[in-house]
Amino acid sequence: MKKGLLIVLSGPSGVGKGTILKELMKDEELMLSYSVSMTTRNKREGEVEGVNYYFVSKEEFEEAVEKGELLEHAEFVGNYYGTPLKDVERLRNEGRNVVLEIEVQGCKQVQEKVKDALTIFIVPPNMEELENRIRGRKTEPEEIIQERLAKAQREMKMMDQYKYVICNDDVDLAVDIISVIIKRHMERANKD
Question: In which domain, by residue range, is 165 found?
Answer without folding.
Answer: 6-191
